[in-house]
User: Fold these one by one.
Assistant:
Number 1:
Amino acid sequence: MTGIAGLTADEFYDRRDHRTDLVVASPAYRAASIRITLSPHATSFADQVAFLTAVNLTARWCRRISLSAPAVALDSRLGTAFGLSGMSAVKAAAALAHAADPFARVGVDLVPEPTIHLVIGTDAPRGTYPILGRGWLAMAGDAVRGDGDTENPLGAVLAACVGVAYLFRTAVGIPRPARVRLSLWNLRGGEAAGQGPRLPQASLGRVLVVGCGAVGSAILYLIPLAGLGGVFELVDHDRVQISNLSTAPIFFADNVGDDKVEIAVEYLKRNRVAAVTHASWFDEAVAAGRILVERPDLIIPAANERNVRRQIQHQAPPLQVYGTTGKNWDAFVGRHIPLKEDCLTCRFPQAQPVGEPPLICGSGTLPTVPELETPVTATLPFLPAVAAVMTVAELIKTALPGYPLNANFGCLDFLGPLKHFIVVPHAPRRGCICEEQDGVWIQLNAATIFAQLSNSSLRDSCVRE
């Protein structure tokens, strides 16, 4: 069945909110009333990105949303991205919210009861929570400052996620972060948060994306907004399920029943990014000779089923950059520079059986629900977007001098005060299969764009964990 025809609102919410309910004990978020305001002095591209992203993600869990915004036209780039050209910013935001949740009450100044109020801008009224993104910086609370780069959407997306987390934490009665200043450039917080450079116009070459679920689809959502190009091959066997509507910013109710890769490729092509689909599991696509015949320059491993991480590593992959989420309100970014850093199998040494504790840098596998073909993972609506924006920030840095700038593992804990990232370097693990891949890796990947980042002479000097 395509779409959600025949379902009542209660049936829809029971299926959609399953992943969220696995994380939080309190269902209080279901009764929350939210107001999201775009300030009259915050109408730039970055500000509209923050507004639309905040509304989009809030509509993945909140059923009553009131919107306020000046009479400003939607930026043409965002109109193209979502097929909403010619609309005002506030009407576009309402359209996205209704598409994500057809049963929601969403409109301009619609909710009369007391609300939790999020404001994009510096002139937030007393009792509201302001957020703003400038360049690589995400700011919230009394850390908000209006000056800076308004063309870079990265800080705006992270600020939106911080704002949505504030709304959600308020709704379920968890203490909220007061002052947030985080940099996606140097993965630091507070006064140490780096401004970073202007975004380059960059191509990632040939990119293989394995998995178009919560994090994978959120990464693809950001690729054209950040001005990244390349040729993208998308591999995923799954169809859009109602549970995916709680987390994936490019999946909407009308997409239920459709192939995830088809929806993702349609989005990329609408934004003039070249893309092709492979609606199959990774191992099946390899066996059929549909992928890896021509070597990709980069792999984004955004899936964890069917022991796919180990299967990817058996292919002696090129550079890998990706995001994951955890069950404890965590979002992670990971990187593997072959022959120099740890590999996928170093970091995920074995498939995780059902019932075992989750790995530190991934989601725990949980029991299936009736309408799903594969196990679901517990996560909150804003966490995949956090992992995605951390990933896209890392991808952009590959085009800048001095890469890599940061260590190859980063974490942001959304249950804490959001004062800083946790950044940890991971070296290769002794006895891992990557120890024996040096020669074949050079034969397969020497001509790829990012091969110069790997240096086989460093292998012997690495201290294995």
Number 2:
Amino acid sequence: MFCLVASTRPSFGLFTNRKIATVVSPKLSVIHLSVLKRSIEINSSNNINHQRRMSSEVMANESFEETEKSWRLLLETSMNKSRKIRGSNYVQIATANKDGEPRCRTVVFRGFLNNLPKNHTMASNGGYCDDKPCVMKMCTDLRSKKVEEVAKGGEMVWWFPETSEQYRIRGSLLLVGGRNDDISLQIARKELWGNLNDPARESFLGGPIMNGGRDDEGKVVPPPENFLLMLLDPMYVDYLCLKGAQYRQIDQRHHGDDDNKSQSYWSFREVDP
């Protein structure tokens, strides 16, 4: 008689053997050892096959029923748990250049766009989920190459090491400069400029280094033309949690019906990791 105890646990998407113990009778034959070896090989092979099935794309037959929490509520919890970690607001933005080649860089997440009028396009067309703002704020420089790459939209990747969670947020990218005639977005641009720290403001100012972007009286100077508010308007969110049992969820924004196309809504569902 023999007994095999084998267990596995996920570790960042990979399966590692945590414990393999065998109790083998002295009379165990060579044939039994061969069977035991083959059993371990099959178990290992199944784990490898499972790893290969893990994908960032949703298969049509891998959708389950709707979940209780939207990506926006999940993200709120993730941010709160990681708020004290230095660099927890660093995210990666991926775009493509005019030749279709991928480009990715790290930027700083600056919060959500809020206080928009109810009749504003971004407010009525999916700008809120569970009564929380969804449009995400960042900033960039007009002289940056990414300015030429945002026309086709982009995808943000946000990894939370404290909770082993990943968010992939896909949507359209909008750049707001000084000549944008949307008053609400101009207010948001000026607020973000004022909220930057002094060294960050100086990086946007040409010529001699200014005193943290402040005048002689210590007041913040107006934002220069090359300072751009960059907004990510989410359309599709892929959430993955690797702590404990793996869990994956897809949230998607839908346009309203023919009678009210301006109104959008979010749906969210669990999928196979």
Number 3:
Amino acid sequence: MPEYRTYDTPSEVAAEEGEVHVDGPDGVAVSLTPDAAIETAERLFQRGTEAQGQKVEAKWRKEATERRPPTP
């Protein structure tokens, strides 16, 4: 099973000879067709906004718990 790491550095992206090249951290590199790149970008945007919402919700829940008076 692959090991996953979380990075906070965006990948570099270039268009060359009708392909989209993505260079990420730790030497990750991939070439995509234009259609695959566009679909990937849409999926990344959707999941990125979803994950950002999860972070905001988790922060809200934590703050709400901290504001709650202790139960006797």
